[in-house]
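**User:** I keep going back and forth on a fold encoding question. It is easy to fool oneself when nobody else works the same problem. Could you pick a protein and write out its sequence and tokenised fold? Could you put it straight underneath, so I can go through it closely?

**Assistant:**
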Amino acid sequence: MQTDAWVERLCVQLADAESDIRTDIATFDDLIQQAIDAKNLALGSRLQKTLRTIRDRQLLGYLANKNVLPKYGFPVDTVELRTTHCEGTVGMQLELSRDLGQAIYDYAPGNQVVAGGKLWTSRGLHKLPKRELETLQYRVCKECNHFESGHVLDPLSTCPNCAAEFDPTKICVLPEFGFVADRKPEDVKAEAPQRAWSGASFVETVGEGSDPVAWPPKGDMQVWARSGTRAKLAVIGEGSGNGFRLCAWCGWAEPIRFDRAPSKTHTRPTTGSPCAGPLDQVNLAHRYETDVAEFTFADFHYTESESKWLSVLYALLEGASEALEISRDDIDGTLSWSADHRRSIVLFDTVPAGAGASKKIAAELDRVLKFAAQRVASCDCGVETSCYGCLRSYRNARFHDQLTREGALEVFQQLGLGDQVVDLTFDEAPESWDDDPLYSSQAVRDLLAELQKAGVPRPEVGIEAGPAYWMVDIVWPAEKVVVVEGVDDDRDTGLAADGYRVVRVEEADVDELAAILVGA
């Protein structure tokens, strides 16, 4: 029966969203007053423009960012690499857009993309009149990688998790107005487009969620799992690793590289006219809220085994993508800290506001682990390393040297996963009637277990049957008996015409099947 209990929860979320915006406005009011008192009118002007950016954000977009509205219905974080100002007619016809979380890598200043038969180079950040890009301070702990951000950070504080000192505080900007391409597109070349990628995702808070539950039920190491919503994440893009030089006036920017001298002059990206604006050293950032699945481990010695746990993290992501048919681009993860200061692995939806993928991973963790272990065990690369066939991806490029198949499987064994982990010798496990068919549904696996207990002959699983190559879930070819899942009248009629006895999983009777197969 429907109730109005959701109203109170909605009011709480609206109150939180209101509190956040009021806090931001109060912070900037104080900073503006401090600039005025110090007679720093240039800084005061920039702060006032930033405040206007915050005040003038669209209400629907703001509420979606705060997880009050379903963000998948409001694509508010999509930004564009603008090309309409470029020479020629091709740029007028293009619409190059990305989710901001991906755009800070793909469209970062200095990076190139191919579109419309031309090579486009990002030349800077788009800026609007009388508006200023929001900037944040952020820092990362030297020892445990704990992340903090805010408009103003206390410079004297230490890491709340390990009491170590933070790395120097850095500045990031939120390029919410998009990016601007170089005025002169190039012809496509034989070599790949230039793309520098460095950065990472960080968990600021793990949000609201279920109470931690012990997992797995067996194992030497204690593990707790929880799923959460409204977790706050930050994606940081650092270009070649050292950030960018960004013009405060026109938005022109270039990646900072120590192997080449910085540009002495620059021009406005949209007009090509000279600009003498001051250059700031910044990184790019995107912040959003989403769903997470958090796994916390006791006796976790982070500094001694970071590479192993990073390997487990990316094995879980690849295993989840394959086992649950989730696009790898829709999920990601990071090493983080729980509310009680325990080291944790956090998997999260890259879709702002969440699409339920992380919750599904938490619910199907046994299956995800089996796929993860099999993926890293069966790869052909060396056990002391990794490759794009097991653990590596474009997004985790900064960790490639730390990811190893051996490290991931070693941790799986320490977690007491037992027969879910393939032996570290990497020999292919022999098939047995007890093996779970990885690509079958739970209903098919349960039926197979019951059929084995009933003593029926071992079937073939997940193959094509008949002259028309119908896909079936279970088949006894000699006995001409098939078990299928779901409704497909064409399939069932075709199999019957080929002489097969067709049984649906939903209607299967183990005793009846046993009588047919044992007596056949």
Remarks:
- The two ends are 51 Å apart (CA to CA).
- Confidence is low (pLDDT under 50) at residues 420-432.
